[in-house]
Structures are given as C-alpha cells and as structure tokens.
Amino acid sequence: MLQTAMIFCAGLGTRFKPWTDNHPKALAVINGKSLLQRNIEYLQGFGIKRVIVNVHHFAPQIIEALQQNNGWGSEVIISDEQDVVLETGGGLLKAKDYLIPGESFLTINVDILTTLDITAFYNFHQQNQSLISLAVSDRKTSRCFVFDEYNRLTGWRNLQTGEERMSIPTMGGSNKAFSGISIFNYEFFNYLRLQGKFSLVDAYLSLAKGHLIAGFDHSGDKWVDVGKPETVPVAEALFA
Question: How far apart, in whole angstroms, are the C-alpha atoms of residue 104 and residue 99?
C-alpha cells in the first residue's frame, strides 16, 4: 500500500484573494478545519501518514501550523521553495530526495477535497502497471485530458479555445476532467527530462507517448476544487 504522499501547498493562490493577501491558501478554513488539515486527515484514512508539504507563499504560517498541531498526527516533511516557486512538476522534482526509491507515492493539490477511494485508485494503478495514474471524472471543464478506449492518456484539450496537445495521435478519444490527484511509480524520475519550473501536466504529456499513463475514473465521488472564495460554501456543504 502507499506509504507516502505529497501535498502541493506552494502556490500563490491568486484566485483565492483576499484571503491569500495575508495567508497561504493551504490554511483556508472549511467548517473549522484548514484545507491542509483536511487533506492530511484524508490521507490518514487510507494509512498514509508520511506526508511531504512544499511551501512558498507565507511559508512560515504553514510551518507554524504544522508544528503547533504536531502534523495533525502525521510525519510531515517540509520541502522549502521559499526562494522560487517551482509549480507542481518542479516542486515534485525538488522533493525527490524525500521520496523512497522503489515505492509508489501519491500527490494531491491542497485545494482539492474529495471522497476518492485511494485504495481502489492504488489497486487500479497496480493492475494496469502504469508509470503514472491520474484520477479523472466526467465533470464539465474547459480543459481536459484525452484518453483512448483503454484509459491511456493520449493528450490534452482546451474545449473553449480548441487548442490541443496530443502525445499520441487519437481519433476522437474521451475527454476527462483531471481531479488533481495522481499516483506515481518512483521510476518516473528516471524518465523525466524537464527541469526547473514546470507543471506536472507538461510532464504527463512529455511522457505519455513512451510510457503508460492511465486514467482512473472516479465519477460519482464527492469532489470540489476550493480554488476561489465562492467555492467555500460548496465545500462546506459537501464536507462536514
């Protein structure tokens, strides 16, 4: 089973102003608990108690909250990006030394709240023997990943602009919304050629042609991206 996860907390949270003018989005409160606490406890529910947290925007506030609450019962490792924010891909690469060679690990964006069954997700990852597995759903979105009939990632589309970035030529294909949660084999780092500041989306698309990246459809689970202040009431209605 998975032992380690990384929660991405370094973002500037520009969509979440005015809260993020003085605080990191990770500490935004939903029904009395911060997004960070909720995700740490969510991971604990599936036996994941070793967590890496990357920090940049108001980093000392996150570090203090973790220290005051003893990591809410988990072993929390700080990956410090205070010098420069690296986006999700660069942030994961910087945290490589905190991950365990040979072991799969999960990543999640701190502003995602969900009831996704991580055990089922991990079993899917193992059965498909994929390098990376992406949690996806049928919800409506303007930007989506494209999968073939075998749930293999083939590309990315912006449904508003018509822009496409196809790694594998695909006629049609099914559009799925990315849920902000992934499972990686550690071997991912052996194949990654991107450096510095980059998005994990870029990493997925650069690797999809030569390696199996599979989509795990969890449509029907509770899921909310707490990316804007107006999504807070939605999140509070879904998560007590």
Answer: 9
> DSSP states of the chain as a string?
---EEEEE-----GGGTTGGGTS-GGG-EETTEEHHHHHHHHHHTTT--EEEEEE-TTHHHHHHHHHHTGGGGSEEEEEE-SS---HHHHHHHHTGGGSPTT--EEEEETTEEE---HHHHHHHHHHHT-SEEEEEE----SEEEEE-TTSBEEEEEETTT--EEESS--SS-EEEEEEEEEEE-TTHHHH----SS--HHHHHHHHTTTS-EEEEE-TTS-EEE--SGGGHHHHHHH--
Q: Residue with structure tokens 């994961």?
A: 92
Q: Which residues contact 134 (CB under 8 A, 6 or more apart)?
A: 145, 153, 178, 179, 181, 182, 204, 213, 214, 215, 216
Give the per-residue pLDDT at 44. Answer: 98
Give the amino acid at 224.
V
Cα–Cα distance for residue pair 232/25, rounded to 1 Å = 12
At 106-158, the pLDDT tens digits run 999 999 999 999 999 999 999 999 999 999 999 999 999 999 999 999 999 99
Supply the pLDDT for residue 205.
98
Domain extent listing, the chain:
4-238
State how far the alpha carbon of 70 is from the alpha carbons of 10, 66, 130, 165, in Å. Answer: 20, 6, 35, 43
Which fold does the domain 4-238 belong to in CATH?
A: Spore Coat Polysaccharide Biosynthesis Protein SpsA; Chain A (3.90.550)
